[in-house]
Amino acid sequence: MFNHEDLAQMQAQSLKMQGWIRQQTFSPELAKTLRRFSSWEVGELIFKVNQSTLRGRLAADPSLPQGQVEEDGRQRWYSLEEINELRRRLKVNRKSLMPERPAGKRAIRAAIANFKGGAGKSTVALHFAHAAALDGYRVLCVDFDPQATLSHSMGLFDVAEEYTVWGVMARDLIHETERMNSATQGAESGAALPQRQLPSSITDMGLAGLRVNDFIKPTSWPTIDLIPSCANAAFVEFASAQYRHLNPEWSFFAAVSRYLDSIPDDAYDLILFDCPPAIGYQSMNAVFAADVLYVPSGPGYWEYDSTTSFIGQLAEALEDLSRFANVVPAGTMNLPKVFHDVRFLLTRYEPNNDLHRAMRSAFEKVFGDRVAQNPIELTRAVEQSGRFLSSIYEIDYRDMTRETWRRARTSFDGAYDEFKSHLLTAWDNLEDEQ
Ligand SMILES: Nc1ncnc2c1ncn2[C@@H]1O[C@H](COP(=O)(O)OP(=O)(O)OP(=O)(O)O)[C@@H](O)[C@H]1O
Ligand SMILES: [Mg+2]
Q1: CA nearest to 413, candidates 374, 366, 363
Q2: N or C of the chain: less Cβ packing under 10 Å?
Q3: Distance CA 289, CA 329 (A)
Q4: Is 145 helix (H, G, I), strand (E, B) or coil?
């Protein structure tokens, strides 16, 4: 028979092994770094301009970043910082290389969500973040999943739970409770209204004093930041229930949304959420804060089934939040929650697999044009390698057959381009909030 102590013992053993694997498989600095990109990639895949035009422009102006030349040769290799400088300084055929962004708006927020485990959420989030960064956007990722796949993929380990979405939520509870208390105190007729009390176990954690930026960590990509997660953040799912009890009027689901509102509008272009495979306080915060919902799903029958039940559960949960409309201060949030766009994205798709093709047409029959037209294909290229999960954008094309790399990249690029076009439409429609 096994009790919690046996399970804890198994976990302790497993953690030892984890440490050993990390030591065996990685370089001493244990930090993820970003590779350079070849002039071929910069011209053809990143700026999408004629290579000889680009070469000519670089030769004509030696003050432009010139990359590094490899020993063997002809290619120059550019860091992302250099690519971004070129982007800012160059115009090709009088066209700016800067990515499109509606003027004066805050960053657009997209949640990659499905309560089905293993649907491909983290893989999609990682690839969209990288594709957007190569496209010139400044990206903030939020890892809502205590499994922390995205955080680990981005090279962030050993995160304390105060600095995760859990911390954001607990800090919001303290701020919101203070706000409610001072509102009742300030009311003329409010003499008899009760003050809400939080226990010192919450107020003494030092969370109230954390600043907006304390939650945001840099990654190996200079234009991608991350609010990471960690296993201990799973605790939030228990703690939040207790928090709601302490202050039933606290709109717990809007904590992250409020937090993101406090980031300056022009600090980022895209804010991307990786969600846990479960409905809960964290995933509700993710969907509530999202302008656009992207739902990845595998191409099998059971995955179709789970995706169907996901939207059912989500519908119920969002309906349930509507009753807060009478509680929150007027004009502070829009209830019921509306998304600017909702899309389903097939992942691990094999174009030659009859079952996958049949499931794709079933998806299209049911969801119509809500189904993204560019599914993400199954590829060997993104299988987990060692400690870090690397995206196809991070993997050097010389490290595998060019055909495999190219094919995987084309598939992710197609899905990203479509995602971007939907984002731009949603972004344009975004009202100037607050
Ligand atoms: N296009 C793909 N080709 C090959 N393997 C893939 C692809 N997409 C995802 N995978 C693999 O499938 C597994 C699950 O993917 P991922 O972790 O992205 O799913 P998830 O929905 O985030 O899972 P969870 O629900 O546990 O958070 C991983 O091992 C990943 O490498
Ligand atoms: Mg995941």
Answers
A1: 374
A2: N
A3: 18
A4: coil
| 386 touches 395 (CB < 8 A) | no
Kindly report the pTM of this predicted structure.
0.93
User: What is the Cα–Cα distance from 165 to 234, expressed in whole angstroms?
Assistant: 10
According to DSSP, the residues that pair with 109 across neighbouring strands are 271
- Pinpoint the alpha helices (H) of 337-393: 354-367
- CATH superfamily of the 108-429 domain: P-loop containing nucleotide triphosphate hydrolases (3.40.50.300)
Distance 99 CA to ligand 2 centre (A): 28
Q: Which residue has 């987990």 as its token pair?
A: 384
DSSP code of residue 301:
H
CA–CA gap between residue 424 and residue 418 (Å, rounded): 10
% of the chain exceeding 90 in pLDDT: 69
Comparing CA positions, the residue from 307, 378, 291, 283 lying closest to residue 342 is 291
Whether residue 431 has pLDDT greater than 90:
no
Chain segment 51-95, per-residue pLDDT in tens = 899 999 999 999 999 999 987 777 899 999 999 999 999 999 889
Question: Is the confidence at residue 386, as pLDDT, over 60?
Answer: no
Residue with structure tokens 């809400």?
Answer: 196
Please state the atom number of ligand 1 nearest to the C-alpha of residue 276: 27
Q: Which residues are found with C-beta within 5 Å of the ion, ligand 2?
A: 121-122, 149
